[in-house]
Write a structure and sequence with these properties.
Layout (H helix, E strand, L loop, with lengths): L2 E7 L3 H14 L5 E7 L6 H8 L5 E3 L5 H11 L5 E5 L3 E2 L6 H9 L3 E10 L14 E3 L5 E3 L2 E2 L2 E2 L11 E2 L7 E5 H6 L12 H11 L3 E12 L10 H26 L6 H32 L3 H17 L21 H9 L1
Parallel strand pairs: 1-2, 1-4, 2-3, 6-13
Antiparallel strand pairs: 4-12, 5-13, 6-12, 7-8, 9-10, 11-13
Helix pairs in contact: 1-2, 6-7, 7-8, 7-9, 8-9
Length: about 350
């Protein structure tokens, strides 16, 4: 099998019933197979799949391992050249998969790629989770081509030129080279969910591969199917994982930035010092957010930020720096893009 298209399900029976038939139809005639891995759902998802979609291979996990642990365990069971991680709340049009496969076939330097994400509810606009490819600003805040903060652009073809190299593609629909996935150890399970795909794509680039968004492919995403945007748990994951993301990848990135200057031991020492400073600054910015939550009476959000920092300290470990010179990633913007946009908005 060339391509395994894998849904990781957790209590989204209705989405599976609605979108799985179209996904299966889109893979007909291709060397591709749709799989569903289930994170111990309790909503009858498995029973529905067994009754209504017996032709779909199932991987049953014995508890909810999150996005990271669920996919890591599921993909160990599948042999394919390419894995597609796809959410259950995505509608795919005919022909969405072939451009991704062709690109990976013809570009061995590409480690991961994905389509444009369009809003399922309003198809004239991009969808928040990934839009037309993801970037990261100086202080580690993710944003997208087509989305900054809560403002989502109308899709007017502004990103419909050549495929673009970006820092990350949304895990809502992400194709990865299976051999590279395995070489990198898959997703970092400390993340559980949220930003784990940014971490994976960043690590791919530091290993010398590209991450590309292909405007020739598009899918329609509902978003927020598992955790609503107003969830304190989701907020805690995002604040915590943003710090883990920086801890994992900034040391090697700063090393790449200093290529050709200083000896390797000096570069590594400088890179780790710069990483500590950048993370301390980011934690101060998080503290500002926590203060806003406190002053506006959003106690659960305030506590979520404090918990996120405590968990980060418990989970943190120094990011690895490869023995060979790492490659400087595409899609890193050395400006405070998100903070500037936030203050302009205010």
């Amino acid at each position: 099998m060339k391509t395994a298209v894998v849904i990781l399900n957790y209590n989204t029976k209705d989405y599976l019933r609605k979108f799985l038939p179209g996904l299966m139809a889109s893979c007909e005639g291709l060397d591709a197979q749709v799989w569903v891995a289930d994170n111990a759902s309790a909503d009858g998802s498995v029973e529905m799949l067994q009754a209504d979609f017996p032709e779909v291979p199932l991987i049953l996990l014995d508890k909810n391992f999150g996005f990271t642990g669920g996919y890591n365990r599921a993909l160990q069971e599948i042999e394919a050249e390419y894995f597609v991680l796809i959410n259950s709340d995505i509608e795919v049009p005919e022909g969405w998969l072939d451009p991704l496969v062709q690109w990976m076939d013809s570009h061995p330097e590409c480690g991961a790629c994905g389509p444009k994400l369009i809003s399922y509810a309003n198809r004239a606009y991009f969808e928040y989770a990934g839009a037309a490819g993801g970037l990261l600003d100086k202080y580690g805040y993710p944003f997208c081509r087509g989305r900054l903060l809560q403002k989502v652009q109308k899709d007017q073809g502004q990103y419909d030129g050549a495929p673009a190299n970006v820092l990350w593609v949304s895990g809502a629909c992400l194709m990865v080279r299976a051999s590279l996935w395995k070489a990198l150890g898959g997703l970092d399970e400390r993340f559980f969910a949220h930003m784990e795909e940014i971490d994976l794509c960043w690590r791919m680039q530091l290993s010398g591969y590209k991450v590309t968004v292909l405007p020739q492919s598009r899918v329609y995403h509902i978003g927020g199917g598992t955790l609503p945007n107003e969830s304190p748990f989701k907020l805690r994951l995002n604040f915590r994982n943003n710090l883990l993301l920086l801890e994992n990848n900034l040391p090697a990135t700063f090393m790449a930035e200093m290529a050709g200057r200083h000896s390797r031991p000096d570069r590594e020492s400088l890179a780790r010092r710069k990483t500590r400073r950048r993370i301390r600054l980011r934690m101060c910015l998080d503290g500002g957010s926590a203060l806003v939550y406190l002053l506006t009476g959003r106690w659960s959000f305030f506590r979520a930020v404090l918990s996120a920092h405590r968990e980060y300290r418990q989970l943190r470990r120094p990011g690895a720096i490869p023995p060979s010179a790492p490659c400087y990633p595409d899609g890193l913007v050395n400006e405070a893009v998100v903070l500037k946009a936030l203050f302009r908005k205010k």
